[in-house]
């Protein structure tokens, strides 16, 4: 794959913070959270150095491959567990530092998603999982191709959906009750596009 020079194509958004003031949730976008130079460097290294895996998810009575690649990293558990997750790399730790500075929160795990092209995406879901409690704070960083991040209220269908193009180097924080009341997706697209990497920092219970 010839991806390396292509990073020049990715534009960061204009610098600015936007509070989306959604009902039943908190949603904050910071464009240009990482500048173009930092974003290009992280994009290249994460793309090539990460050991990406297929993710198989249960779907009714079958198991299907998710249309994206993933990698999960987590701080070393205090208690040794059987399945040792990968620890955060130096790059991931540096990115986390910036995220923690911004949010004044701490995170002990990060999920990386790689959307290889427009056929990759993520279907409607919210991020509640057994290990992160009912209202997890999700801190999301994007590098590479701009993809639409769409949110909809789970119960009040009259509330308009929110559509946010997440640009190279942007940061999005979902907090408060967002994950109880809203779900989100990254729709597939027929456009010819380059890969996008998304990182979601999380707090998981050990
Ligand atoms: O790629 C994104 O922006 C969102 C990823 C996501 O929703 C997830 O990993 O739970
Ligand atoms: Fe999600």
From TrEMBL:
Molecular function per GO: dioxygenase activity
Keyword set, alphabetical order: Dioxygenase, Oxidoreductase
UniProt keyword annotation of Aminoacyl-tRNA synthetase present: no
PROSITE patterns per record: FE2OG_OXY
InterPro entries cross-referenced by the UniProt entry: AlkB-like (IPR027450), AlkB-like_sf (IPR037151), ALKBH3 (IPR032854), Oxoglu/Fe-dep_dioxygenase_dom (IPR005123)
Protein name from the UniProt record: Alpha-ketoglutarate-dependent dioxygenase AlkB
Ranges for domain Fe2OG dioxygenase: 106-205
Transmembrane segments: none
């Amino acid at each position: 794959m010839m991806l390396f020079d292509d990073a020049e194509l990715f534009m960061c958004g204009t610098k600015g913070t936007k509070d989306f003031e959604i009902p039943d949730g908190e949603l904050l976008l910071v464009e240009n959270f990482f500048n173009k130079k930092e974003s290009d460097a992280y994009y290249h290294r994460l793309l090539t150095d990460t050991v990406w895996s297929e993710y198989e998810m249960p779907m009714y009575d079958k198991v299907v491959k998710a249309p994206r690649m993933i990698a999960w990293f987590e701080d070393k558990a205090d208690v040794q567990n059987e399945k040792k997750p990968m620890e955060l790399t130096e790059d991931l730790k540096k990115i986390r530092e910036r995220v923690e500075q911004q949010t004044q929160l701490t995170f002990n795990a990060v999920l990386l998603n790689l959307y290889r092209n427009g056929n990759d995406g993520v279907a409607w879901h919210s991020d509640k999982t057994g290990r992160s409690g009912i209202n997890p704070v999700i801190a999301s960083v994007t590098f590479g191709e701009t993809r639409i991040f769409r949110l909809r209220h789970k119960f009040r269908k009259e509330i308009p959906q929110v559509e946010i193009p997440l640009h190279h180097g942007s940061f999005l924080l979902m907090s408060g009750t967002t994950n109880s009341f809203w779900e989100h997706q990254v729709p597939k697209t027929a456009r010819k596009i380059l890969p996008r990497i998304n990182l979601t920092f999380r707090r998981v219970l050990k």
